[in-house]
Amino acid sequence: MAETPLQMTIRLYRKLKRRGHKVRTWSDYFEGKHPLLFASPEFSTQTGDLFDGFSDNWCRTIVHATAERLRPLAFRLADGSIDKAAGRAWKRSGCHVEANLALLEALISGRSYALVWKPDGVHTEITFEKSTTAIVEYVPGRRRLRAAGLKVWTDHDLEFATLFTPTMVYRWQRPRRDGGQWTGRTAGLSRGQPSHIPNPLRVVPLVELPNLVRLGASPVSELAPVIPLQNSINALWVHAMTASDERALPARVVLGMDRPVREIIDPDTGEVVGEEDEPLAKFRSDRLLWLERQGASIAEFSAADLRGFLDLITQAVEHVAAQTRTPAIYLNKKLINIPESAVSADESGLVAKAYEKQDHFGAGLQEVMRLEALAAGEPDRAESLSMGSVVWRDPHFRTEVQYADSLVKLKGIGVPDEALWERIPGVTHDEIERWKRMRTDQAAAILGGDLAALYGPKPTEGEQGSAEPVPEVA
Question: Would you kindly state where each structural domain of the chain is located, as residue ranges?
Fold first, then answer.
């Protein structure tokens, strides 16, 4: 029997909720909320909650090292030209900011989503969703053909869900309390508007942006290989701090002498009724001690050497760098007397990983802009976008001198100015268009004989007449 839209909604909703535990764990580690693991029960009993909330958080550094090298700038059509309409739609929806957050979320949670829709029926809007609020299902045997998509959210005492299929959009709601039944949506809809409507795009408008590592495998967080090492680093630090607190200073001990005692006097009779141990805290604070027994002496225990802990922590951090292809300079910041070639070699693994991520995420972003073109009623542009590519910021981080040297050499072998400008970090295609107009204006001024226009505005007639005459030289 075929699955009904309501049954599909319930099934996808349950699948989405099952995913939530793992996503929350990855998110907590990114935020530095780490449980203290790899410590013995005896250690936990002694320290109690002393180290609750402590973490030496390398997870955030690992994720940001990749995320900061993923910056989509524009979209090319099949003929290699920049799609200006896609650029306007991208900026109109705030994607130049939101997309960076979506890619960061995908690196943390394994995936994020983009939704292309016309909420008012007129203007196309692109929004990005977390992996805990959206899910996409694919046609069996087809890894890229979307069969359905579900988006959920809450508002006060109601929970909402929208199921997207290629032909219909089903809109549901239910009370949050006691897990009520899903019914057709009425909240937020005008009177007489149906809960379920046809899908004008004729395709599922929810697109997954997966952080892939294997063919056919589920998307996974960048933090998956880091978490065990992060736990070991935290455990080593708390052991080092505990040892530092107890044994960081030399300890002295008195040998051959009884423990100091003091008499207990009855306050009523004034007679000595016993004796008790003298608190040693006073001797520590006064730094005074009387050795009255013959043969008494003082010995000393050396302070604990904590370098073993620090060496282990350094080794664990190096393992984090190796397993995530993160440059060592990101983690230890030792840049003294290191040549530029060595820095570039150290970053080569991260740069290669960034290129891989650009391919994976780029396919999803191309599909998003293809849907935007379909929603705008431009099927030819949509087809051209599907055969085009995403323009990304160069994942190499170089100095201005290195970039200038590289661009001059490329210019020397005949690379056009526009292609060189695109290689400058942070330069948008709007700026490139402005530079083209400025170059055209300069050429027109030269051909027109107006060389002064190249150096700024000329003075007006009034300003020329008010100039004081130059005195004649006798």
Answer: 1-37+55-220+339-397, 250-302
